[in-house]
Amino acid sequence: MFPYWLLFSFFAVGSIVERPSQSWDARRSAPLVLLGAILIALMIGFRWNVGADWTAYVKMFQIAGYTNFSRLLQSGDPGYQWLNWAVQQAGGEFWMLNLICGIIFSWGLYRLAMTQPSPWLAMLVAIPYLVIVVAMGFVRQGVALGFLMAGIAHMIRGGSLVRFVFYVVAASLFHRTAAVELVLVGFGSSRGRLFNTMLMAVAGFVLYGSLLQSHLNSFIENYISIRYNAQGAFIRVMMSVIPATLYFVYRDKMQLTEVEGRIWRNLAVASFAFFALLYILPSSSAVDRLALYVLPIQIAVLSRMPSLGKGEVAARAAVMAYSAAVMFVWLNFGDNATSWVPYQFFFSAAGQPAT
């Protein structure tokens, strides 16, 4: 567990030092936060036999070495399958594929964190679940979230919806379910409502026809019809419901721009909707997977708690303690924690079987 806690401690120290209420200049902290993002990418890329789906991803990589390229693209998410094929064609190893995925994820996380008043705390909040569990376990969704977080940061900075659509398309190539973010975030734009609505309708139609339609039946069969339930889905969804509740309680004090307010409002509403769907749909697994795309609300809301009132130090300590508690409980008592513990580096495990 030591490598995980060492990574957590790096951002914890930065979180203690930064003081957004004293006009903290994010540009001054950018190089060190970027260093932290690089450390995250390296831990994702150089891990070995870490993650519940490790064996399945190893098999995907091995199959990509001898399967026809066009057939390979049809057998799974095309972006991830293409990346498998490209690394194989370059004579690369499995850790290289993971490193590329880690870089994409960390790039998106860094971009989103730097749009927040407390980038260090924003990164810290992401470590226990978004980084360790999702990026190191659900690799394709992790890459998809990397693109989506970069897209959200683009929107927060006043970027166009057209470019955001390209981020969603890139994310959907790595996991088709990422297309849901087109609706959740796309309606956050405040410019050209009619044009944006038409653009999202066209983009949604294209995504559905090219990526979703052919796999919709299998999604329903695998996640809903067979009533497959994911262990811990309730807790994971509640982890987004908590910041969603805090958003509605404190949104007037958060000093959000109009676009930011709409984006986090939409993700907050979606968090409550996913919580309700846990009791409506026969399978919690489908909800668990889709709820991954509201995780950025944890970063935005929890990292803003210290800047809402006079008790900044206490609030910052509370957020840090909460994050540490989530990480401690997951690593010690999580149902699948043995797939993450102990953390192994590729270089120390070199020569061992890749399963």
Structure notes:
The chain is mainly α and 355 residues long. α7 runs antiparallel to α8 and α8 packs antiparallel against α9. It contains 17 helices and no strands.
Q: TL;DR?
A:
By secondary structure, this protein is mainly alpha-helical. Helices cover 72% and strands 0% of the residues.
Write the layout of secondary structure elements.
Layout: H1 2-17, H2 26-45, H3 54-63, H4 69-74, H5 78-89, H6 94-113, H7 119-137, H8 139-156, H9 161-174, H10 181-186, H11 193-225, H12 233-250, H13 258-280, H14 284-290, H15 296-302, H16 312-333, H17 346-349
Helix pairs in contact: 1-2, 1-7, 1-16, 2-6, 2-7, 5-9, 6-7, 6-8, 7-8, 7-15, 7-16, 8-9, 9-11, 12-13, 12-14, 12-15, 13-14
Descriptors:
355 residues; mainly alpha; 17 helices; 72% helix
What is the rounded distance between the termini?
A: 20 Å
Category by helix and strand content: mainly alpha
Number of strands: 0
Name the helicity range: over 70%
Helix-strand topology string: HHHHHHHHHHHHHHHHH
The residue ranges in which pLDDT falls below 50 over 5 or more consecutive positions are 21-25
- Beta-strand content: under 5%
Estimate the global geometry from the Cα principal axes: globular
